[in-house]
Every structure is written in structure tokens, then in C-alpha cells.
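[job 4417] fold queue: 2 targets
>>> target A
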Amino acid sequence: MTQIWRPDIPPSPGPLYARLTDALERDIAAGILPAGGRLPPQRDLAHTLGLSVGTVTKAYAEAERRGLLLAHVGRGSFIRGTSPDIAIATSFDSVASASEAKATGPQGTGIDLRCNIPPRVGLSRALERAVADLAASGQLEPAVQYIQASGLRSVREAGAAWLARRYGLACDPADLIQCNGGQHAITLVLSSLCRPGDTVLCESATFYGARTAAEHMGLTLRGVAMDEEGLIPSALERAALETRARVLFTVPTLQNPTSRTMSLSRRQDIARVARQHDLTLFEDDAYYLYADPADRPPPLAAIAPERTVYLASISKGVCPGFRLAFVTLPPNVARERIMRGIRALGYCPPALGGMIFARWVADGTADAVADAVQAEAAARLAMARQILGPAMDSPGAARSPHVWVPLSPLAAQRTLNHALRAGVDLTPPEACCVSRDAESGLRICLGAPDDRPTLERALHIVRDAIHEPAISEARGII
């Protein structure tokens, strides 16, 4: 029998779907929702509560992940209960258990395809050697002290050498600013260039971290339409005229989430529009290392250096744990404003990760690690192409840590729910959307699983979720 349920969702920080899931968990614990009861269909509950169907769908999926529900297409969602001796007698229990066992590791945790990190290439021994060498040479002292706000000069010199060697971008070490990872850099730059209430232009589907930073600072993101090469220049021009925005945040190489890459001519057109409308370009080049050096276009910072703030993250191509990124500034951005931001947001960057990186740049370890990451990324992308086939867009480079599966909003949410039930975590489809006409689909991150067999299992689950009959119908396949 379907349970009648009208939860109390008190106002509080956090996503609405998470608060709805919390209310569900509270009512189960209080006995308001008994084990074995069937919850209302998602569309019915959405209508009752005045919420979007997507919010309720995501809450039900999160409740499944927490072990509160069991769901079966065509039958509904059932309360699992909190007591270990309570079992729900449904015909799909064994099927769900088998799917979860196939998808998860020995600890029973889901396979993560949400976190966009480089594949693991065995860094522990190299890290141990670097720390031992720093200790033996008496160079560890800065790691236990406050350092200058812009970072250690030795680290900035290594950053300049790295950008010249791997990015083809020449810069003076004195002009580099060391940041505590790319997310810190995004928050730092946006808070220094903008004020609450300002509009920042970006791709219609953008990096979730930039969206989080903008929301935290009270900024409005205005999505700009894209095509297969990324930002459309004419759409950018219209948005600049309509909003009088002063900043464009863009990921021109392997755009996150769509994995599209701007050609040289497209970058030149974007730079032209920026000059005409006096836009400061904030270029997040986190994935430049993954592009083929033989044919990758230069960064926007090389095309329009007079107006581009450039961000290069070491986390995405070498080691996430370093929490290290570098920012370069154009002449029209006051460096002191950035320095004040650093002191306000963290006082100074941590030293140890940067010191190890500097040592690795000097002895060649950084190049070896980056090359190993690229080789593994190429192998994982080939696997994704083989398993996902035409459901996946071809990324804008021969190697990519993430791929894009275009789907309607409804089909994307259904795919996510089916994958989640089988033990695979995907990024929610609305996480990256900025505007109503945003690119719709799912980002699949290939680097997070520990090894290729785990990734292979996860990709098969995603493929099956995409082609499940109800989803295929929503996509117009059948």
C-alpha cells in the first residue's frame, strides 16, 4: 500500500533534495514511515510539496544510497527500515543485491565517477623520496612556517619553468601567484574582480566549483550558448551587451563538463569580443596538459595577455594532494587586490606540496608523473569509447579525464538513478547547468576509480543505465 507522506522540510542551508532526504530519514527513525511501506510516486510527491520532479527524484536516489529505500522500475520505492532484522519481501531484493555486489568493492562502497581527478599512477614512493631528500638537505623548515602570501619563490620559479615547458606559456616567476589548488584560485580571483550582485559570464554548462564559488559570493552566473567548439562568439557578444558584465570565466580546453576544446580561430574570436566589450578573461586551463602538444591551440593568455587572468592547476595533471595552482595576472588587474584576497581567504598557501613539486620539476619526476597520467588517461578514454560507443560525445582532445554523454534532463536523471542503484556515483545533471538552455547530459569522470577493471565495471553499468528501455524512450531511441 502506498504510504501517505507529507514531510516537514524546515528552511536551512544546503540543497533542497538533501533536506528532503533528511526529512525522510527522520520520519523513518520516528516510525512515521514503517518498513515495507511504499512511498508516493516521485511525480505525485513533487506535486503535493510544490517541488520539481528532479528534486524529488534526486532525494529518492540519495535515500537509496543511504540504504533507506529499495526501488524497482515499475513497482515503486519501498522503505527499507532501520532495524537489521527487518526485511522487505520484494521480488527484486536479490537482483539489487547482485547489482550492488558487482559494482562495489570489498568494502561495499560505490564506484566514484563524480570526482574529476587524474588517474592514480603510484605516487607514494616518489613522495616519500622527495620528503626524505628535503629533510636530509635541511630544506623542510618552510613547511612548518607561514610563508609569503604569493608563495615561495622557489615554488614560483618551478611553476614558471613548468608552464614554459608543458604549456608553452612564458611568464616571470615574480608575476606568478601560488594558490591552494584551483578552487581556491577561482574563489580568490572572482572575489577580487567582482562585487556581490555582479554578473559573471561563463559557458551555459560550467565547472561546478565555479558555480559554488559564485553562489557563495552572491555573484550571478550568466550562461553563454555553446556549440561543438565551446563558447559561441556571437552569443558572448549578446550576453556582454545585455548584462554589461566585466568578467568571463571560461574553460577553453576540454571544457568541464562537456570536454569540448576551442580551436585557434575560436579563441581569436573570443579574444576579439572581449576587447570590444572590455571583458577580463578568466581562463581556467586545468586540462591543458591532456591536449596533444602537436596540435593544441595556445592558451587565451597567449592570444590576449593584456586582459587574461590565467589559472593552471597542478592537481588535475600531476597530484591532487599537492593543493597547488598558479595564477598569472594581466596588467589591468591590481596585484595588491589579489594579495589582500589571499590574506583574507587563507593568509598564505601551504608550503609542503609546492616544495615537493619544485623538487620534482627540477629532477624530472613531475614530467614522468604527468606523462604516466596522460598514458593512463588515454587508455581509460579508449575504454570509455569502446563501452559507451555513440552515446558518448568525442572529447576535444586525444586524452581526457572526463567525457560527456548528452541526454535530456529527464533521461539524465533516470540514468543517474539507475547507475546509483547499481553502485555507481555520477555527477547530478543539474550541478553544472547555469541557464535553461544549458547543455544537458552527464559528465563521466574516468580518473577516480582505482584501476581499469573497476572503471570497466562502472562503465558497463552506465551503458546499461543509458540503454534501459524507459531511458531509451526518453532519448527518442525507441
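>>> target B
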Amino acid sequence: MSADARGDFSQIPILDVSGLYAGDDAAVLKVAETLRGYLENIGFLYVAGHGVSRADVEAVRSMSKAFFALPDEEKLKLKIDKNFRGFLPFAGSTIVTSSVAKVSKPNQSESIFFMHEVAADDPDVLAGKPLQGPNQWPDETALPGFRATIERYVEEMSALARKMVHAISISIGMPADSMDRYFDKPTTFLRLLHYPTQPAEEGLFGSAPHTDYGYITLLAQDDVGGLEVKNKAGEWIAAPPIPDTFVMNVGDILARWSNDRFVSTPHRVINRSGRERYSQPFFFDPSMDEMIEALPTCVPAGAEPKYAPVLYRDYLMERIDKNYHYRKGAAAAAATS
């Protein structure tokens, strides 16, 4: 890829990843080589041929709609906790760490987070490690089948994400399983989002311009649209819904890991459709205790990595503590204790 081509795009490409499931090394290599170009140049693509059924995607969307239709007092019974699990009320985050825009107004959305499940008696919980604990679930009598639907989807999305980790490893000249150890206990987030239609107001967004924090994001959209991706010319390129695909993008940690070989591209959401928008991004990140430093195949001979090593836990917590309103009091208290 030439330097001139980086960020020069006018649409988001589609990649059929069914070759990753074929048990054929040549098919896997073909997917990985195509993927490399998309991640180096655009940082975004649509993933097709992934094996996750439309029925399971739509089942999660139906559960999401049912949850957000509950009265506020019911949703607030699951208000987001110190472990970043639960319901985040409307306008509960402002992306002040955005590297691509000065953001002063909160995102026009409400959401509920489900992270990797950690039992209350797990050693990491007992040791007080951050973001470790059980998820919060709606009452089964109110939303029957909710937990089973979500957990099945997280399992499927995790399997797809691991396929993509293998393809990414191959794409940068490493064995397929070379990064598996970083994901022994992956940090995962499934965020169900509800975006009401928003007024046309300067600086107001469903999701303000930003880059994602982590490794990769796999997003299922409904049919409303509103996601836009920024190219190097400063144009916002629509990423409209395409049936049976996920939008995949590079997060900041993968960009950092690859020594900026892969690009973490700015994106935003604007919902002026006159309709309610529902989306379900799944974030697949390394274990919290992993040290992230540039991969050797991504650092030219004789050159120094662009970034110093960073503990993923520290990197993630800095961003969460700054961007989510409910965290700010806790973070300040911790800093003075």
C-alpha cells in the first residue's frame, strides 16, 4: 500500500470471510491478505460469510428494543455499576478523550453493557481488580429469555472475533495462533444502544466523532443507518446497513500494537432519520493484564516503536474514567485516597 492511498476511500468494502471456516490454508491466506489492505488503508470493512445467523442477530435486537421500552424506573434497577456492567442512562457519556474532535456535548443515546462474565467469588473480583464482576440482568419475568439470548450471541461473536484475530496475525506475517495468549481471558463488551432521533444542533451527535479504544469492533446495525466514517480528505462516508454483515473496525490498541500499520479511523453516528435507531457493537479486546507493545513484524529494522509499552488495564481505565459521567466521582475519590 502506498502512503498516498492510506485513508483515501469513498465507500466501505465488503469482505467474505467464509474462507476462515473452510479448513483450507490457501483460503485463509487469501482472506488475510485482503483484510490487510483494508485495515492498512481504511480501518473499516463489512464482514460477510461469518456464520452468525440472522435470527440470532435479530433476537438480540428484539431483546434490546424490549429492554429500552421498559419504564425508566425498571431500567434504573440495573444502573451501571463500578464494574462497567448495566444500564447507562440517556446522555451518560461525553467523549472527552476523542483525538479527532473537541467534544463538549454528551452522546444522544442510552445503552446497557454486558462484559465478560466473572463470578462474584472469582479471585480477580476478590482481589479488587477493575472491571471484574458479574453482569446485571433484567428480571426473567419481565423479559423472558433475555440472558440466554445475549449469552448465546456473545459466544458466537467471540468465536468470530477469534477467527479475525487469526486472520490479522497472518496478515502481519505471524503464525495464526501467535496472538492467542493475549486473549486467554479476553475483555469483551456487548453494548446495546438506543438512539432516539436527534435535533439538528451544532456539536450534537448520537455518538460524537471518535476512535474505538480496543482491538476490534464488530457492529450489527438495524436498518436505520447513521454511521459515518471519516476519510483523509475530511469527508464523512456513510456506512449504511447491509443485511447479514457486521461492520468491523480497528481500535486504538490494535493500531498501537501494529505500530500504526493498521489505522484506527474516526467515525460518528448522527440519527436524524425520524426513527429510533438500535445497534449492537461487540468489542473484543485483550486480557486486562496484558502488556501491549509493538509487534516485531510491524517495526522496521533499525527503527524504534512509535509507542512505549502499556498495560491494557491502565490504558482502558483512563479512557473509561474520563468519558463516562458516572465514573468521574469514583475516579477522583480514588486519586485522593
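[job 4417] complete. Note on B: Confidence is low (pLDDT under 50) at residues 331-337.
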